[in-house]
Design a protein that fits this description.
- By secondary structure, the chain is mainly alpha-helical.
- The chain has 8 helices and no strands.
- Helix 3 runs antiparallel to helix 4 and helix 4 crosses helix 7.
- It is elongated and about 50 Å long.
- It starts with a helix and ends with a helix.
């Protein structure tokens, strides 16, 4: 694992990000934007699935799922670039490890939710069953945990 971390650390983009200039702050800002788009879409959707409401899920769910997917893509790409700046340090950081565990759980939960037959009923008819609500609750907790662990990285 250490050899892979050293290789990543010497990646051209990682070296460019370590140089003085605007690249690191721009990639960092894009990462924050991706996280904001992801959580700004997924958390309201999870809350709507959990608590109900008047906004039709047939409209809301596909739109917010796509927005979350775009945010996730941006966050993952920029997150890997930021990780590449000092991968060995991040791999030794407990908060980073927790973030990766929670991110993995959140992504597994996304897959389970979208494979869940209840998700098709949400999108087609706007009805929410108990398994869909449980997965929404797990999603809410996993993504918030991921956010908190990510913020904690700089403090350890």
């Amino acid at each position: 694992m250490d050899q892979l971390a050293v290789w990543i650390e010497h990646w051209t983009l990682a070296e460019a990000l370590r140089r003085p200039g605007a690249l690191y702050p721009l990639v960092n800002a894009a990462h924050v934007l991706g996280i904001g788009l992801l959580l700004g879409a997924i958390l309201p959707l999870d809350l709507r699935l959990l608590l109900g409401g008047s906004t039709p899920l047939q409209v809301l769910a596909p739109f917010l799922s796509r927005a979350a997917g775009i945010g996730l893509t941006l966050a993952l790409l920029t997150g890997f670039a930021l990780f590449a700046v000092k991968p060995r340090e991040y791999l030794g950081n407990g908060a980073f490890i927790w973030k990766m565990v929670l991110l993995s759980l959140a992504l597994i939960n996304v897959a389970l939710q979208h494979l869940n037959p209840g998700w098709a009923r949400v999108v087609q008819h706007g009805t929410v069953d108990a398994p869909t609500r449980i997965l929404a609750a797990l999603s809410f907790l996993a993504w918030l945990g991921c956010l908190l662990a990510g913020r904690w990285i700089g403090f350890l």
